[in-house]
Each structure stands twice: as structure tokens, then as C-alpha cells.
Design brief:
Blueprint lengths: L1 E8 L2 E8 L6 E5 L5 H7 L11 H10 L4 E3 L7 H9 L5 E2 L3 H5 L3 H6 L19 E2 L6 E2 L25 E5 L3 H12 L3 E5 L19 H16 L3 E4 L6 H7 L3 E4 L4 E2 L12 E3 L13 E5 L3 H10 L5 E5 L13 H12 L18 E4 L3 E6 L2 E5 L5 E5 L2 E4 L3 E2 L2 H5 L7 E4 L9 H13 L2
Parallel strand pairs: 3-4, 4-5, 8-9, 8-11, 9-10, 11-22, 13-20, 14-15, 14-20, 15-16
Antiparallel strand pairs: 1-2, 2-3, 6-7, 12-21, 17-18, 18-19
Length: 442
């Protein structure tokens, strides 16, 4: 049992939980659930720094003699928890989402295996309930921990399978996840990756400051793959049909991803046109004004990212709303749009006072009809044609699986399974869950 007391601190409601016991500690929280402006601090998202609320626990320590539990603030790493206690900011550290992402979080720390902790990426999908096909009930899921979607652990199979030789084509998140799961089942795995590094399209996280959790998840997968003796990695190696047949595998996992898609718009071949997947690493060369075609999650997050490089951003969306693909993580959708429309700093502790940004102009119900050397032309909601000047036109128009490339690997083994974006373009949840399911089929 406990009572709850709210006190406004810097525009954020702070919760103090005191259990009805003389020796019980104080548990500190912040913000209010279902209040969008503060919920981002109650459950810190990618736009907040890790440990963004720890200053509250430190202040509580100055005014009370009871033990203080620091529970809210995206404290995902053991080093941060240790430092908080060592510096006197709290007596105990509690966390929830990290244990959903990896139930063995504490045991791995105790055993000195911190590099094997599966990182929480703070997407809040675990707090949003949905019906999982076949479960018959409403349940939540975890983006990086596919087992979280099952209401109960799967029973062990009574069919003994000999260790198999499996080839995984593609070293992106889907391919790496599949390799790790297959190795855990005792199979020998070879990964063929045409690039010089593992990670696939998650390389964008090296450039976007607020994607540090995605970067941690990518690096976690790379570490698991590189230290696993049953996994062999071939970098800078194109997986041709001939090469796969030479390996004579028992099964092939195809995780080749998808290719940038640009709709047939007049002028799309011009030098000032670039796909959103190709922006990272050349932000400083985009010019002062850019136009982003596509107001989905990728386009909106890109606008947030480019605010620090460009003076003016024109966001063009053919539909009537932004981020229709973001409703499965509504808090992240809200805060992406908020950070695009406001000058909000990750180190900030207030959201209500964040000023409106004058860098991003949002044009809904507007269709890009042509591109020229000076920018692009759109037809707006009223049916009027307008020309918008831009140094670069960025096509945030998604990815598309290469059907012909997928055919190359057909019948190269008894089991050929397609996973990740090459099967269905999606997100990290799609890569992790499809890879996990594939491992059960082999």
C-alpha cells in the first residue's frame, strides 16, 4: 500500500511513493501518465537523455533520511546505475523496461557479462497493448525481445534435430538476430555480408544523436555475432547462387533487406534529389533549404535531425496527417512531431515552455508532382499548384523489396526462409520477430 503526492518541479509533476512501513524507502517518479507533455519524462523516450530525471532523486536525498529509490529516467546501463549510487544520488536503482528487453539484465551484470545485455531502445511498445495473432488476448510486445509477445513460454520440441549448417545472407539486424538464435539451438551458421561491416541500414544511428539506443542495440548484436564460435562471418562477400550451393547448407536464411524506393515523379533523376537512406554522413552538404517528400516516421525523424544543419525544412505529405505509420507507438509519434514543431533540447527538463520552431514548414494534403533544379512543385489541398525552392529534395518514400534478387536464392537448400525487410518492409520489431520465428522453423 502507498500514498501518492504530486509536486510541480520545473513544470513536471513529481511523484513520491511511501509504503506504509517505518523502514520503507521512498520511490521517486516524475510526470503524469496520459499527459502527453510530461509522459515523455515518466517513461523517457529517445528524445530525452538517459537519466533525465535523476536530479529529482538527488534533491530528495538532501531533505529526507529514508532510502531513496531512483526508478525513472531511462537508466539502462549498469555504469550509470553504479555512478548514481556512488555519487549519493540514490540508495537503490529500479528499472522496468530494461528487464522487459532482457529478463537476465541483473544476472548478466552480476556475472560480468554486461556486453551481452539486450538493450531497451525506449520505444514504449511494451506499454501499448495490442492483440497478438493466435494469443486470443490483448498483450504487449517488446521490439527487441520477441519472446515478450508470447503469453507463455513455448514448450520444448520432442523432435530431436541434428545440428545443421545454415547460411544467413545479410548481416543487418534481421540476419544477425537469426544467426544468434540459430547458434543457441546448436546450429553452425555462416553470414555472408556484401558490405565491409555488420549492421545493415542501422548505420544511420551513428549520425542521429537521439538514436543512441538503436546504436546500442546494433552494437549488441554485432558483439554477440563476433564472439560466437559457431558463427562465421564473411564480409565484403556477395552471396551468389553459386557460392551458396558450394556451401551445401541445410537451410538458408535470406535477410537482404530492401532497396530505396522513389515514386515515378517527373525530375526524380536530377542531381539535387537524394533518398532519405543516403542522407547520413553528408548532412553538411545539403544546403540551407531542403524539402522532404514524405511525412511518415522516417521523414519526420529526419526533419528533427536536420534542424541542426539546415535553416529551412519543407515537409511535404500527401495525406491528411503526419506519421500514420507511428500509431503502434503513440508516445514516440507525439514526441517526434513535438520535437519537429518545437525547439526542444534533449537536455531540457521542460516541454510546455519549449518555443515553436520556425525551421520546419509542414504541408499536409500536398502532392509532389515534379522536381527541377531549383526545387519542386506541389499540388496543395485546394488543388493549387505551387513551386517550393530547395537546395536538395529528399525522398522519404520508403523501401521496397527486390523481388528479382530474392529469386536468386530459391531452392538453394531444403529450407529457404525470407526474413526482415526483404519479406515485408517494417521496423526493428519486424526484423527481430521474423528472425526469431525463422529459428524455430529450422
Amino acid at each position: 500500500m502507498f500514498f501518492l503526492h504530486y509536486t510541480p518541479v520545473r513544470g513536471i509533476s513529481v511523484s513520491f511513493f511511501r509504503f506504509f512501513s517505518a523502514s520503507a524507502p521512498l520511490q521517486r517518479s516524475a510526470g503524469m501518465i496520459h499527459d502527453e507533455l510530461t509522459e515523455g519524462f515518466t517513461f523517457p523516450l529517445q528524445y530525452m537523455q538517459h537519466g533525465c530525471n535523476t536530479y529529482i532523486a538527488k534533491e530528495m536525498k538532501k531533505h529526507c533520511k529514508k532510502a531513496v529509490i531512483e526508478t525513472i529516467g531511462g537508466i539502462n546501463e549498469p555504469q550509470m546505475a553504479d555512478l548514481l549510487i556512488a555519487e549519493g544520488g540514490a540508495d537503490l536503482v529500479g528499472m522496468s523496461r530494461s528487464f522487459i528487453a532482457d529478463p537476465d539484465w541483473a544476472e548478466k551484470v552480476r556475472c560480468g557479462r554486461e556486453d551481452e545485455i539486450r538493450p531497451c531502445i525506449r520505444c514504449l511498445r511494451c506499454l501499448n497493448y495490442s492483440t497478438i495473432p493466435g494469443s486470443g488476448t490483448g498483450t504487449s510486445m517488446c521490439t527487441v525481445n520477441p519472446r515478450r509477445v508470447f503469453p507463455h513460454p513455448l514448450p520444448p520440441s520432442y523432435l530431436l534435430q541434428p545440428n545443421k549448417k545454415v547460411v544467413v545472407i545479410g548481416g543487418g539486424p534481421a540476419g544477425m538476430k537469426a544467426a544468434v538464435e540459430l547458434s543457441r539451438k546448436g546450429h553452425r551458421v555462416s553470414i555472408f555480408e556484401k558490405a565491409g561491416t555488420l549492421g545493415g541500414r542501422l548505420y544511420f544511428s551513428d549520425y542521429m544523436e537521439f538514436k543512441e539506443d538503436i546504436r546500442r542495440y546494433r552494437d549488441y548484436l554485432i558483439r554477440l555475432v563476433e564472439k560466437d564460435e559457431k558463427i562465421t562471418v564473411y564480409l565484403n562477400t556477395e552471396a551468389t547462387r553459386e557460392r551458396i550451393e558450394q556451401e551445401a547448407p541445410d537451410a538458408v536464411i535470406v535477410a537482404i533487406g530492401a532497396e530505396p524506393f522513389v515514386p515515378p515523379i517527373e525530375g526524380r533523376e536530377k542531381a539535387n534529389v537524394i533518398h532519405s537512406a543516403e542522407v547520413f554522413g553528408m548532412e553538411s552538404q545539403l544546403g540551407e533549404t531542403v524539402a522532404i517528400v514524405g511525412g511518415g516516421q522516417v521523414g519526420c525523424e529526419l526533419a528533427v535531425h536536420l534542424k541542426q544543419f539546415c535553416k529551412k525544412i519543407e515537409l511535404i505529405e500527401a495525406g491528411e496527417e503526419l506519421m500514420p505509420d507511428g500509431y503502434d507507438t503513440p508516445e514516440e509519434r507525439y514526441w517526434t512531431i513535438f520535437c519537429m514543431e518545437h525547439d526542444f533540447e534533449r537536455s531540457g527538463r521542460e516541454s510546455a515552455s519549449a518555443p515553436l520552431s520556425d525551421k520546419v514548414t509542414i504541408r499536409l494534403n500536398s502532392k509532389c508532382v515534379s522536381i527541377d533544379d531549383q526545387g519542386l512543385s506541389i499540388v496543395d489541398a485546394a488543388g493549387e499548384r505551387q513551386h517550393i525552392k530547395a537546395d536538395k529534395v529528399i525522398m522519404a518514400t520508403g523501401l521496397k523489396p527486390d523481388a528479382e534478387k530474392k529469386k536468386i536464392f530459391k531452392n538453394t537448400a531444403y529450407d529457404v526462409i525470407y526474413i526482415g525487410d526483404c519479406e515485408k518492409v517494417g521496423n526493428i520489431l519486424g526484423t527481430s520477430s521474423s528472425a526469431y520465428r525463422a529459428s524455430f522453423r529450422i
